[in-house]
Design goal:
- The chain has helices at 2-13, 17-37, 46-49, 70-86, 112-118, 184-210, 215-242, 248-251, 312-326, 367-379, 397-425, 429-454, 460-489, 494-526, 530-560, 564-567, 577-580; strands at 51-59, 93-97, 101-107, 125-135, 147-151, 163-165, 264-270, 273-279, 284-285, 289-297, 303-310, 336-340, 343-346, 358-365, 385-394.
- The chain is an alpha+beta fold.
- A five-stranded mixed β-barrel has the order 4-8-7-13-12.
- Helix 12 packs antiparallel against helix 15 (530-560), helix 13 (460-489) runs antiparallel to helix 14 (494-526) and helix 13 packs parallel to helix 15.
């Protein structure tokens, strides 16, 4: 059994070129992917690229004087973090300051502007039936938005066709200005608002009558409810007629203070045009949405859409409200408004009940709009309202100076390592230096590709982690080289010394890198912010150290061990047996082939 084992070992040792070819192919592929994606440099964090620092101050909600507390502030920080990361803006910092302030640092880059808009948005979401709708201001003549909602009526999408509701949401009238008289369409919508309020009042009165034993009390309650509904309808109709959603001052107050049970006016921008709405009481709450995601419809012409899944309770509410809206044949009373912080973000039409707890919102969404809506639906509402105290632009000047200093420190460290290798290992530095360059190339290309894929951003602590990795990688080479030298001191020639030293060096390198990786993983888990950048870079470079040593350093050493310069133990090779104090070459003692001369004692035999 020994001979085949040596044969397999010799075969494996004779083909180190395969490992070198493999790692070189990997470098070429990563480099090609880097240039193909257009990301030829790593993404930079806020301390290196600059960005925006936002200070938000918490405000107590009406009727909740003690809402600002540590629990709610921590919850708000967690939601803001998820929102920003959900938009792909990595290395953002969200932290509390004092008892009522939150500081948000957002680096410059993809979706950073969208993140600034979302970070302090309360994101209170309601689904409200639309009672009236029309284009607002000068945009009335050109706006024609469209949106639809659809959902699956079966738990298994493939088992039956999905029930859907689709239609166009169009402007039903226009007003030149808030002070002008309403059009006939707007007047008819005002009557619709009044009728809707009166219908609600009638239902309430009927319920009161059925529970009361006195006809006179019932009549009095009906009269009081009817008068109250008429007054509320008149007030609401006046607000609706005067509302001009093209004016920011009016948009800032329209519907913002309404309770979920109120009928209210609201504004919404769809397809670039502003619309004003009258909305009924909320029927579904944002907390009823379990998950939402933006997807692109590759099968139809809907483009970007938002897919939602509801909780069990939310699914029933959504099915009930869509069933009621589907009974209305005309717009806009067959629409429901998706209202976020008092503003209508979409108002799809409904043609039949949507059951099964799944729904899609489609319309003229861009990718950014769809992702923004799904992000807010997924991560929920903040427990507090926030006012923006200050927005400061952070320049990269200071970070650039620190980066410059860090790169100088890294270059000095690398130079010292090279000088050490040249002084103590001489010719072996021809193996160590290319290994360091391969490790640097892999690190750079992977960091560049991780920017657009997992939103990794390079900050100053991450640069420090990369500098520390130089020492970790050099340490692996030194362990391997010293093991080879130990074998040569024992009297072995270079090629057997390399193969015998590798298993022992391999175990030491793996144990050392495992400890480094474990420390990096623990640091990444228990810390937040920029320290995670250091931990991530340290862990990445530790893994790459194992890859480089196994697939580049060891095969290259095997190849060079066959060259006369190293095999003969040249004094500049770093493997000179005399310089290392080697013993005499190991020789095997052979036993005589024939029987020994002289008589043999039977007892000794």
């Amino acid at each position: 059994m020994a001979a085949p084992k040596r044969g397999r070992s010799a075969s494996a040792q004779s083909k180190p070129g395969r490992s070198l070819a493999l790692i070189l192919i990997a470098i070429v592929a990563l480099t090609g992917g880097m240039f193909a994606s257009g990301n030829t440099t790593p993404r930079l964090g806020i301390d290196l690229a600059g960005g925006t620092s936002i200070t938000l101050q918490a405000r107590n909600e009406p009727g909740q004087p003690n809402a600002i507390n540590k629990t709610n502030m921590n919850t708000a920080v967690e939601i803001m973090n998820r929102r920003v990361n959900g938009l792909g803006v990595s290395e953002a910092e969200v932290q509390t300051q004092g008892t009522s302030n939150i500081i948000v640092n957002i680096p410059k880059g993809t979706n950073s502007a969208e993140a600034r808009q979302q970070v302090g948005t309360t994101a209170k979401l309601y689904f409200r039936p639309v009672l009236a709708q029309e284009a607002s201001g000068a945009a009335a003549s050109s706006a024609s938005p469209s949106a639809s909602a659809s959902g699956s009526s079966s738990a298994s999408p493939s088992s039956s066709p999905s029930s859907s509701a689709s239609g166009s949401q169009t402007a039903t009238g226009s007003s030149a200005s808030p002070s002008s008289s309403p059009s006939s369409s707007a007047t008819s919508q005002g009557r619709a608002v009044t009728d809707a309020l009166k219908a609600g009042s009638t239902a309430s009165s009927s319920a009161s009558a059925s529970s009361s034993a006195s006809p006179s009390a019932t009549s009095s309650a009906d009269a009081s409810a009817s008068a109250s509904a008429s007054a509320a309808a008149s007030k609401l109709e006046a607000e609706y007629t005067a509302l001009d959603c093209t004016k920011a001052a009016q948009r800032a107050t329209a519907g913002k203070s309404a309770k979920p049970t109120d009928t209210t006016v609201a504004c919404g921008q769809i397809g670039g045009a502003w619309y004003k709405y009258v909305l009924g009481p909320a029927r579904v709450d944002g907390t009823d949405v379990k998950k939402a995601q933006a997807v692109f419809d590759t099968q139809g012409a809907s483009g970007w859409q938002v897919q939602m899944s509801f909780t069990s309770g939310g699914a029933k509410k959504f099915a009930d409200v869509t069933a009621e809206l589907a009974k209305n044949a005309s717009q806009p009373t067959n629409e429901f408004g998706i209202v976020l912080d008092g503003e209508v973000v979409s108002s799809p039409t409904v043609s039949q009940s949507i059951t099964g707890g799944q729904a899609e919102i489609s319309g003229s969404f861009t990718q950014e709009e769809a992702q923004s809506l799904s992000n807010m639906l997924s991560y929920g509402a903040l427990p507090l309202s926030f006012r923006t105290e200050s927005v400061t632009t952070v320049t990269a000047a200071l970070g650039g100076q620190q980066l410059h200093a860090g790169l100088i420190a890294g270059a000095i460290g690398l130079a010292l390592v090279i000088i050490y290798l040249l002084a103590f290992y001489r010719g072996l530095s021809l193996i160590a230096i290319p290994s360091l360059l391969v490790s640097a190339a892999l690190t750079y290309t992977i960091m560049s590709l991780l920017g657009p894929t997992i939103h990794f951003a390079l900050n100053l602590p991450a640069v420090c982690g990369a500098i520390v990795a130089i020492g970790i990688t050099a340490d692996s080479f030194i362990v391997f080289f010293e093991r080879i030298r130990d074998e040569i001191r024992e009297g072995r020639t270079l090629r057997p010394a390399v193969e015998r030293a590798w298993p022992r060096a391999r175990r030491t390198i793996l144990v050392s890198d495992f400890v480094s990786f474990l420390a990096a993983a623990v640091l990444f888990i228990v810390t937040v912010g920029k320290v995670q950048g250091f931990a991530f870079t340290l862990g990445l470079t530790t893994v790459l150290d194992v890859v480089v040593v196994f697939f580049f350093t060891k095969p290259l050493m095997t190849i060079l061990a066959r060259r006369k310069f190293f095999a003969s133990g040249h004094k500049w090779s770093g493997l000179d047996p005399k310089g290392l104090g080697a013993k005499a070459p190991l020789r095997r003692t052979r036993r005589p082939a024939g029987p020994t001369a002289g008589p043999v004692d039977p007892k000794e035999a």
